[in-house]
Amino acid sequence: MLEDGYEIPLIISDYVMPDMKGDELLRRVHQLSPKTLKVMLTGQATIEAVGNAIKNAKLYRYIGKPWQTEDLKLTVTEAVHSYSQDKKLVSQNLELRKINQELEFALEQQSKLTEAAKRFVPNEFVSLLSRDSLSDVKLGDSVEKEMSILFSDIRDFTALSEGMTPQENFKFINAYLSRMEPGIIGNHGFIDKYIGDAIMALFGHSAVDAVQAGISMLHSLDDYNQYRINAGYVPIKIGIGINTGSLMLGTVGATNRMDSTVIGDAVNLAARVESLTKSYGVSMLITQNTFLKLTNCPCYAIRNIGRVRVKGKSDLVTIHEVFDTDSPELKEGKLITLPVFLEGLYNYSAGKHKEAAQLFAECLQQNPLDQVAQNYLERCQEMHVILPQNRAEFI
After folding, report:
1. CB count in 10 Å sphere of residue 206
2. Cis bond leading into 388, ω under 30°?
3. What is the DSSP string of 318-329?
4. Kind of pairing, strands 284-287 and 238-253?
5. What is the layout of strands, in order, in the sheet containing 10-14?
6. Which of 259, 289, 9 minimizes the C-alpha distance to 141?
7. On the chain, which terminus has fewer CB atoms closer than 10 Å, C or N?
8. Confidence at residue 381, expressed as pLDDT on a 0 to 100 scale
């Protein structure tokens, strides 16, 4: 019957039979159909035989002779009902297992989507908007925060990329950016966006984190450049600019497409300061706003390099060079000549270009690779030619 696909909910066996004892029959039935319920009827079975049936055949019930008809009917009814309930429970368990597997798969997919979303919109951004998850963020959500903004950019990237295919460009950019990211993440910052080869990162905890991240990025660049040199490629240079101030952080766009962004004068100034690194021939510049926030922090190698007028601002902006990652010789030279350099800067600001030129020349005599001193010396020489003597009021 089993081979023909029939179910056997219950089998009732006598104990005494011509060729086989009831406990042995039920044992064999159990091997073929474990779910079939077994009942043994007898008045002659020993305790051992009943025990064997219970142990080897999972005996459902033992009924001694003479049995009562109503008792047998009740036993059969209960057994069939129990079999049906077990079968129903097995079916429900299978269905629950299927549902659980589907739920686990859905959760796994959701987790993957969440992880993927984090790579486009950082968790820190969502947290700053006081939202529990990215799905809670709505168009127009915004908050005002004081943060430090870091911009970095590869020098002469356009000329560098012209010698590469589009595929080589992508490979190069990703190799470079993947080396810059750890320094930002490791110093409590997050990357707001990539703009081609440029990075814009935000630091909400302290300005120290931003400066330390910039230093870490420049150290990583040294390692990357060594790899490039060993592989036969030219080393690259980057500029880093940092400013600290109030900004608006939020979402912009339209119903079907929005993006996270930060807006404010502090952001624009950070970008302008980064662009000045190329003019001054340095790797890292910070504003006075950031410099004043560097309290209770490690002793960085920093020097004031004057005030500049940046696009979009009417007031002059004081900037500082962070030169911790310069070569040991260049860094030592800048530290040794710092008093002379600052005196030269003071004279330059006062319009005393001749005196300033002498002081910057002295700096260069001790430290010939100081690009900022060279820059100011050339400016002094140009001013000396352009302006008549004793006309400092024109500066």
Report:
1. 19
2. no
3. EEEEE-TTS-HH
4. parallel
5. 10-14, 37-42, 61-64
6. 259
7. N
8. 87
Q: Residue 14 in contact with residue 42, Cβ under 8 Å?
A: yes
Using only C-alpha atoms, the chain has a radius of gyration, in whole angstroms, of: 41
Ordered DSSP codes for 17-78? -SSS-HHHHHHHHHHH-TTSEEEEEESS--HHHHHHHHHHH---EEEESSPPHHHHHHHHHH
Q: The dihedral of CA 17, 22, 28, 32: what is its sign?
A: positive
Please say whether the beta carbons of 12 and 26 come within 8 A: no
- HSE, CB side, 13 Å, CA atoms: give it for residue 93: 6
Our separate counts of H helices and E strands in the chain read 13, 11
Q: Span 172-193, mean pLDDT?
A: 93
Q: Is 247 exposed, middle or buried (0-12, 13-18, 19+ CB in 10 A)?
A: buried
Taking the CB of residue 266, how many other CB atoms lie within 10 A of it? 21
Task: Write the CB contacts of 185 (distance below 8 Å, at least 6 apart in sequence).
Answer: none
Amino acid letter at 198? A
The encoded tokens of residue 41 equal: 């009827």
Q: What percentage of the chain has pLDDT greater than the value 90? A: 44
Tell me: pLDDT of 390 over 60: no
**And the tokens for 180?**
């810059």
Q: How many CB atoms lie within 10 A of CB 285?
A: 27
How much is the pTM?
A: 0.70
* Separation between Cα atoms, residue 277 and residue 227, nearest integer Å: 24
Q: Which of 343, 344, 348, 345 is nearest to 387 (CA)?
A: 348
Higher-pLDDT residue of 173 and 391 is: 173
* Tokens coding 49: 């035989």
The Cα 183–Cα 166 span in angstroms is: 27
Residue 41 bridge partners (DSSP): 14, 63
Collapsing DSSP to helix, strand or coil, 193 comes out as strand
Task: Report the alpha-carbon distance of residue 240 to residue 284 in Å, rounded.
Answer: 5
Point out which residues pair with 193 in neighbouring strands.
200
Integer Cα distance of 277 and 285 in angstroms: 6
Q: Using 50, 70 and 90 to split pLDDT, how confident is the model at 385?
A: low
